Each structure stands twice: as C-alpha cells, then as structure tokens.
C-alpha cells in the first residue's frame, strides 16, 4: 500500500475547525505556568483534509500554530458522490474508528472529533463509529488513517491491472 498523497494547498478556500483546546500547566518553583494546546482540523471540503497541533502561551497563537501545522499535513481523500467509496477501519494508538458509506440524505453521523474531520474532508453522507479511546488526538488521527486508506474503483482497477468494469464482477 502506498503512502497517502500529500496535498500542497494554496490559500484557496481552506476552512478550519478547532477540535480541542486544553490548558496545560507546568509547575515551577515560582508556581504554575499555564499554556495552551490546540488541535485543529483543516480542509477544503473537496477531498483534502489535515490535522495539526499547536502549543503557545495564549489561545490565539496556539490556534494559529495548529492551523499552520495542519496545512503542512494535508492528504487527499477519495470521495464517491458525497460519501466514502467503501467501509474502512482506522487505528491510531488506542483510538479505533469505523467509517461506512451512507445513502444520500443520511448526513454525517459521527462523534465530535470524527465529525470535524469528515466535514472538513467534504463527506456529506457517512456512518461512523468511534471505538476504544475517546482522546480527540487519537480519534482525529485514526479517522485520517481510515480516510487515507480509501481507494476508489479507478485506483483499484489500476492497481490490479484490469479494466474498470471487471472490478465490480465477483
């Protein structure tokens, strides 16, 4: 299996969504020093999605850093008529996800962190289940893992070295 294709995006129509913002404390001899950690998902709503982590002493700076990181880590996702081409499992750490295609009009049926990734990727109809860890970092990475494993019929035919209509025959 090949590595997911990296996307080099200009500043064209990239939307961002804050998934998680945590205040973290470092205990020093002078007391606690607070800083912020932000997890952000970015996407163009047309098959490109990425995630990023930013840390800084104030909220807005940590979000900016996370967005910059997310734009560097964008991948291209195979979509088929507003949904995913096939059922796929993804895993990262203890976070496991299951992503299934859904009929038109179903909507995005997914939990918080997964919903952000799927919406930013441009998926409109999908059934998704998060299993194992509910840690947003692991769920986001597991969802992106599942999306990066998606293959459409043309890619499958090319990989197998057969014609497109032969892919659908049993």
Distance between the termini: 22 Å
Number of helices: 5
Return the CATH topology of the largest domain.
Ribosomal Protein S5, domain 2
How is the quaternary structure best described?
single chain
Name the poorly predicted regions: none
Primary descriptors:
2 domains; four-stranded mixed sheet; four-stranded antiparallel sheet; Double Stranded RNA Binding Domain; 170 residues; 35% strand; Ribosomal Protein S5, domain 2; alpha+beta
What does this protein structure show overall?
This protein has 2 domains: 15-75, Double Stranded RNA Binding Domain, CATH 3.30.160; 78-160, Ribosomal Protein S5, domain 2, CATH 3.30.230. The protein has helices spanning 59-72, 112-121, 136-148, 153-160, 164-167, and strands at residues 15-28, 31-43, 48-56, 74-76, 88-92, 95-101, 108-109, 126-132. Helix 2 (112-121) packs parallel to helix 3. The protein is elongated. Strands 1-2-3-4 form a 4-stranded antiparallel β-sheet. A 4-stranded mixed β-sheet has the order 5-6-8-7. The two termini are 22 Å apart. Helix content is 29%, strand content 35%. It is built from 5 helices and 8 strands. The mean pLDDT is 89. The chain has 170 residues and is α+β, with helices and mostly antiparallel strands.
